[in-house]
Specification:
Elements (H helix, E strand, L loop, with lengths): L4 E6 L9 H8 L5 E5 L3 H10 L7 E7 L6 E4 L1 E3 L26 E3 L4 H7 L4 E4 L6 H10 L5 E6 L5 H11 L2
Helix pairs in contact: 1-5, 2-4, 3-5
Length: 171
Amino acid sequence: MKKNILITGFTPFLDHKINPSQEIANLLKDSFSTIVFEVSYEKVTHKLLQLDLESYDAIILLGLSSNRNKISIEKFAYNLIDVAKPDNDNIIKQNEPILVGGRPKISTEFNLGEITKVLEEEWQYSDDPGRYLCNFLFYKVLNRNRNSVFIHLPKNCDSYRLSENIKKLFS
């Protein structure tokens, strides 16, 4: 039986003209369900309300982290947005919980070892998904489907190669 997998990416933001997560989601749209989110707190929230996240066997969330030089596999999401940079709607959120009364930190239940078996690129585990849109999305998704993982991409990642590695993960 074919697994129901969701792959997500983000549009470009701030001064980044290209977002490799968007490229990868677009490359995978014929193999999996895919969504490219706007870099907007409001639009992410609205789109998530329309999705049956619980119906997916696994969810791979992708996002750009331009200050990292290798792929980062995030282990946790935090109930906090705290960044001085605006989203694409020019909204700045600082020191705000994502979910009032929610757990401070949620860990993924995705089998992270499976990802590392197929990655050909340099990678690392990370305990810090930042406190911007990537963490915002990851926290909201983990509240509804713990078999989800967030992968931060460096700006120089090979989108085609990584998309092929993601295909291997579920073949």
